[in-house]
Structure formats: structure tokens, C-alpha cells
Design a protein that fits this description.
The complex is a heterodimer. By secondary structure, chain A is mostly helical. Chain A contains 10 helices and no strands. Chain A has 2 domains: about 1-45, no CATH class; about 60-180, no CATH class. In chain A, about 85% of the residues lie in helices and about 0% in strands. Chain B is mostly helical. Chain B has a domain at about 60-160. Helix content of chain B is about 85%, strand content about 0%. Chain B has 8 helices and no strands. Chain B has helices spanning about 1-25, 25-60, 60-70, 75-85, 90-105, 110-120, 125-135, 135-160. The chains are: A mainly alpha, B mainly alpha. Chains A and B meet through helix 1, helix 2, helix 5, helix 6 and helix 7 of A and helix 1, helix 2, helix 5, helix 6 and helix 7 of B.
């Protein structure tokens, strides 16, 4: 029971919030729910291939290989690999997190996982053209350049602020492990 | 642009799945099973995020955002913009047109830079999910730093443009 509540805690809170809005402001509430419903479909369409890839990666990519590419000793090459992997991906942040989870699970360096996450969120090559056309090349160029510097700053600062204990916990707390055993 | 990317993603994942199937059927079945379990594992939180975003986007629609950010809102406006960007999780495809319109209406470039940066890199709504994958400390640190650094990005934009 406790497990169930823990698992559905956010969902329950959010649905209650939606219900509240529906009772107080029916129009807004119903509009929000139908919007979310449509989004749910969209989201499943994006997530299906992401999870297929995660599953394949989990089974086929050896831990040793991932450690060589993006692990603690991977140095500049690992940083570049994480950055490139991030910038070519254009899925929403919530779909990236499971990917980050698998990267961690396979032994990637924490800074590299963060570089992957941040670069994918802030500098998406597939979306650059779009930004270019709506905001102009000067703005896009400067914003991206500044963001790239910031990505590395964030990744290394977080990595530096985490203690060894925190890091160990990050590698262990991954609850995918629990599911993989079933 | 997003649609094209989705097609490419499908192409890659189905291609690799086929390759995996040819090489080892058992392993392929295992990977699909694991993917399904991982998906079910985070599904409740995903659905929660979606419904929260739906609610936020209905209340904070583009015209509301436009009103809040205003035309000449200075540092105060930038702070509000940053918070708006941090809480809401507007898909970039919707965010850029809003930003372009704000720009046409005279909003500052710095506010826009803050808006876009926090919008894409800081997610209060997705924080619980992020904590699940990265742990509390790393997830919170990442979001706080991304929030603070969005002002650096804005400052650079303001200085250079």
C-alpha cells in the first residue's frame, strides 16, 4: 500500500488539482484536460522509439564499452561524445531523463551525463533552424555560444560539488536495477 | 522540424531493433521486455507531468505570458520571465514563436534569452522525475545552477547585441 501511494503520489496530487480547477472553473479545467489528453498521444508517439532504444542499449552495450566511451577516464573524448549525443537529440527533457538513467547505469561519468542532459535541452541542432528563422541568426548564435559555455560550467560544478558518497548513491539508487531483476 | 526528427528516431530505433532481432532473438525480446518495464515504471510520473503542464499551459497561455512579461520590464521583468520559464515547460516549437512575437512587440533581447534558457533547461515540473534518475542533490543543483546561469547567458546577449 505504501509503495502504491509512493508510486502514484504525484499523479494523485496533479489529478486532484485538475479536478479542483474543473469544479471551480469548468471551462479552464476541461480545456486543460483535453489539451493534456492530446499531448498524451503525442508523448506516447515520441516515447515509443526512445524506450526501444533504451532497451536495446541496456542489453547490447557492454558496461565496459560505455565506461571506455563516457566513463571517468574518458577525458575529452567522453565530454565530446556526451555533447554530440546531446545536441543531435531533440526530445523533451522528460524523455531524456530515462536515457540519462541508462547512461549512468552503464557507468558514464556524472559530468558527462549532465553534459548530455543540458546540451540536449539547450542546444538542439534540429531546433536551431527553427530558432534561426523566428529570432534571427545573431541572437541564435550568441545565445547558443553562451549556453554551450554554461552547459560545461553546470556539468563540472555539479560534478565537483557532489561528494564521492553522493556519486556512489547516484550509480546505485537507479531503480532500473530493481526492475531489471524481475 | 520536430516531426522530421520523430521520423528519424523511428527509423533508427526500428532499424536497430531489426538488426538486433537478426543477431539474437532472445536478447531482442529481453530488451523489449526491459524497455516496457522501464516505461511502466515511470509512466505514472510522466502522466502527472503531462497533466500538470496541460493545466499550466491553459492558464499561462501565450497572451497571458505576453501580458506578464510586458514591453519594458527591465530586471524585474527578467526575474519574472526566468520564473515563468522555469516553471512552465513549453515545447520549444511553441516557445520560439512566442519569443519572436515578444521581440516584435518590443520586449528586450535579454528577457528573451532568459526565457528561452530557463524554459529549456530548468524544469520545476519535471524535478521529481529528475530526482528519480539523478538523485536529489544532483537534480536540484543542476536546476538551480541552470536558473542562475540563464542570467549569465542573458548578460552575454545584452552585451554583444
Amino acid at each position: 500500500m505504501k509503495e502504491v501511494i509512493k508510486r502514484y503520489k504525484y499523479l494523485i496530487v496533479v489529478l486532484a488539482l485538475n479536478l479542483l480547477v474543473i469544479t471551480v472553473r469548468p471551462e479552464t479545467g476541461i480545456a486543460a484536460c483535453s489539451f493534456s489528453g492530446r499531448n498524451l498521444l503525442n508523448f506516447l508517439v515520441i516515447l515509443a522509439p526512445v524506450f526501444i532504444l533504451i532497451g536495446l542499449m541496456d542489453i547490447w552495450v557492454e558496461r565496459e564499452l560505455m565506461i571506455r566511451i563516457m566513463g571517468n577516464q574518458s577525458g575529452l573524448r567522453g565530454i565530446l561524445a556526451a555533447f554530440l549525443l546531446g545536441t543531435i537529440t531533440a526530445v523533451p527533457l522528460y524523455a531524456l531523463l530515462p536515457v540519462a538513467g541508462v547512461l549512468l547505469r552503464k557507468g558514464s561519468r556524472i559530468a558527462n551525463v549532465l553534459i548530455f542532459l543540458c546540451s540536449s535541452a539547450a542546444v538542439r541542432i534540429p531546433l536551431l533552424l527553427f530558432e534561426l528563422s523566428s529570432l534571427g541568426w545573431e541572437f541564435t548564435l550568441v545565445r547558443c555560444a553562451a549556453n554551450i559555455v554554461v552547459i560545461f560550467a553546470i556539468a563540472f560544478i555539479v560534478d565537483w560539488l557532489l561528494s564521492e558518497e553522493d556519486k556512489e548513491q547516484m550509480y546505485e539508487s537507479d531503480d532500473l536495477e530493481k526492475y531489471a531483476k524481475n | 522540424m520536430d516531426a522530421v526528427f520523430t521520423y528519424i528516431l523511428y527509423g533508427i530505433s526500428l532499424g536497430l531493433l531489426g538488426l538486433s532481432f537478426v543477431k539474437d532473438k532472445k536478447k531482442t525480446a529481453m530488451s523489449l521486455k526491459r524497455a516496457w518495464r522501464m516505461f511502466l515504471n515511470v509512466l505514472p510520473q510522466f502522466v502527472a507531468i503531462l497533466f500538470l503542464v496541460g493545466l499550466l499551459l491553459t492558464v499561462l497561455n501565450p497572451s497571458a505570458i505576453r501580458q506578464i512579461i510586458g514591453v519594458d520590464s527591465g530586471w524585474g521583468g527578467m526575474l519574472i520571465t526566468a520564473f515563468l520559464g522555469a516553471v512552465t515547460l513549453v515545447p520549444a516549437l511553441i516557445a520560439f514563436p512566442i519569443a519572436a512575437e515578444l521581440l516584435r512587440n518590443g520586449a528586450g533581447l535579454m528577457q528573451l534569452a532568459v526565457f528561452i534558457t530557463t524554459l529549456t533547461t530548468v524544469g520545476l515540473v519535471t524535478l521529481p522525475l529528475e530526482i528519480k534518475y539523478l538523485g536529489k542533490k544532483a537534480a536540484i543543483l543542476r536546476n538551480v545552477l541552470a536558473f542562475l546561469f540563464s542570467f549569465t547567458v542573458a548578460a552575454v546577449v545584452g552585451l554583444l547585441l
